[in-house]
Amino acid sequence: MAIPVLVVEGITKRFGNIEAVRGVGFEIAAGETYGLLGPNGAGKTTSISIIAGLLEADSGTIRVAGEELDTRSIKPKAAVGLVPQELAIYPDLTAGENLRFFGRLYGLAGDRLSSRIDHVLGVVGLADRADDAAKEYSGGMKRRLNIAIGLLHQPALLILDEPTVGVDPQSRNAILESVEQLSDEGLAVLYTTHYMEEAERLCDRVGIIDDGEIKAEGTRRELVALIGQKDRIVVEASGSADGVAGHLAKLPGVVNASAVEGTFDLLVDEAARTLPAVFAAFAQHRLTVTSLQVIEPDLEAVFLHLTGKALRD
Amino acid sequence: MRAMLLIAGKDLRLRIRDRSAFVVGLLVPFVLALVFSLILGAADEGPIDLAYGVVDADGSDVSSAFTEILDSLEADGVIDVRPVSDEAAARGLLDGGEVRAVFVIPAGFGSSVEAGRGVTMSVLGDVDSPTSTAIAESIAETFAAGIEGVRLAALTAASIGADVAATIAEVRSAPPVLSVESLGAADRQLDLTTFFVAGMAVFFLFFTVQFGVTSLLDERREGTMSRLVAAPIGSSSIVGAKALVSVVLGVVSMAVLVVASALLLGAEWGDPVGVTVLVLSGVISAVGIMAVVAAFARTPEGAGNLQAVIAVGLGMLGGVFFPAPLGDGILATLSYATPHRWFMTGLGDLAGGGGVAVVLPSAGALLAFGLVTGVIAGFRLRRRVLA
């Protein structure tokens, strides 16, 4: 691996009795996109807040471009671009004014600032709306402006915390394309999401995080290899689902089973051998199967295998 | 410093755009001061005019003693006095508004006093100037009390067989029975217009400055605080910028109100340097107090509500709504726990004709409020920025 832009070592964070982050550590090289994949409450945002210097870690170290970073750091923060999960823009300012303000805060000025503003507005597709107040933007456009601000000062490391939450499909696609382009340009990207398909599309390596811990880390191929040639079965059924997941998990050949609002997610050794028993269980619980999918192993299956729960739990 | 100015500039731009600071800081206090001044000013007799006449139909030593007292008061700049030939002329002057009261000393006044007989000195007053007339009556009564003192001294001397003439001479050579050093308290009162403009200005100052410090909570709620903290700047730049915005808003609103009220309403603020010192220290005290509230509030709304309660409470206790004196009771003592009282006291001192030196005690008290609360708020807000 190339010289890492970001090195995270053993960071921990406790809020009262809750241990939100437990020894998280990973590295990201220039031009690499690293995904932190996990459900809500897994510790992604807390980890990112510590890495961006917003939150003090109880222990562990962060190094960005070779320099240690914490909440009081000044210089190392200039190497980081942050795109928070919550929109962090001034709605009463135009996109241009937002960018100009944050650009100056990072030391940009004059022609360089103007050219960077033009560039990032082009990257996120807002060049023709630069003079409109941000409050007049759609949700997706605000998200794109949120990303543009993080990119403005050409950071070595870009941190994106679930940037597509609540975004329309068109804007979501534009955001994903922007991230792909930035990675191709040599930017180190830390990307958190609970959308498996985003992690699979964007990330060179993925860290699967749950309960504040990274359960596994690697490329998609490496992670899928962890669960061998297991199949995933997704069943939608109508009727009372109480206790059904537990019953399914005990069936021969079933590795894991979870249920969310009538959708059952099973990881099995071999779908063809297990399906009769699965159908029998549904019939026993008087559930009517309305759809069924057999899926080859993916990150969702890996997550289910590692944590015993679905990503959207 | 550069980051602080950048953030402050951005905040000021936002404040100018939403116009709320303009309404709270300038429009409302100016209009309220105008309304109060018009309503209550109509009931006021205006500046106290102490122009008096004196009719001395006696010409004795005793009546001369009284006119000498009047002359000494005139020499001190307390009253204006003019001799009047007779009572008819006196009434003419009163009707013409040339004097507010006339002392009428009847013929035989001195001999009656020396003989111990009852005699009356009249005070003719202008019915439209009750305060001026009351002051004239007070002067006459004080003189009468002095004469009574001399008479008692003479009676006492006679009863013990002493030299009555010598005793009277001794009493008369004693310091004047009536002496008025200055009417300082009256001079140090603001006229109604200035009082209400100043009162409303300092009252709304506390609402105006809160726009700056409370925006720290707005940044947290809007999510922009994370970007500021993630930027390569110190947390003190963020907190300092908010305080700077408060100071700028406060100073600008006060300066505009001072100038506008002087030009449009005829408010008399006094020595410009003294007013500047008072305004600056008043703004610092307001920023400190409002910053403490913002530092301990959880939400912008919570801070706003608490700041409003505190601003109104301090304003009422500080006596900015009523021109009546607070007296010497517990309220008067408590009022010194408010910046408002010190601000109004400082302005009153300036109205007495003093320069910057007379406002230094008030300015010092205001700065003490600002520094104590500002230091507490600064520590707390920096911790919250990094929390």
Describe this structure in words.
In chain A, helix 3 packs across helix 4 and helix 4 packs parallel to helix 5 (169-184). Chain A has ten helices and 14 strands. The mean pLDDT of chain A is 87. Helix content of chain A is 34%, strand content 30%. In chain A, the strands form three sheets. In chain A, strands 6-7-8-3-9-10 form a six-stranded mixed beta sheet, sandwiched between helices. Chain A has 313 residues and is an alpha/beta fold. Chain A folds into two domains: 4-224, Rossmann fold; 229-296, Alpha-Beta Plaits (2-Layer Sandwich). Chain B folds into two domains: 2-43 and 191-385, no CATH class; 51-183, 3-Layer(aba) Sandwich (abc type-2 transporter like fold). Chain B has helices at residues 2-18, 20-41, 61-75, 87-95, 109-115, 130-159, 164-173, 184-187, 192-222, 224-230, 235-265, 272-296, 300-317, 330-335, 339-351, 356-385, and strands at 51-56, 80-83, 101-105, 122-125. In chain B, helix 3 (61-75) links the parallel strand 1 (51-56) and strand 2. In chain B, helix 11 crosses helix 12 and helix 12 packs parallel to helix 16. The longest helix of chain B has 31 residues, at 192-222. Classes of the chains: A alpha/beta (313), B mainly alpha (387). At the A-B interface, helix 2 of A face helix 1 and helix 10 of B.
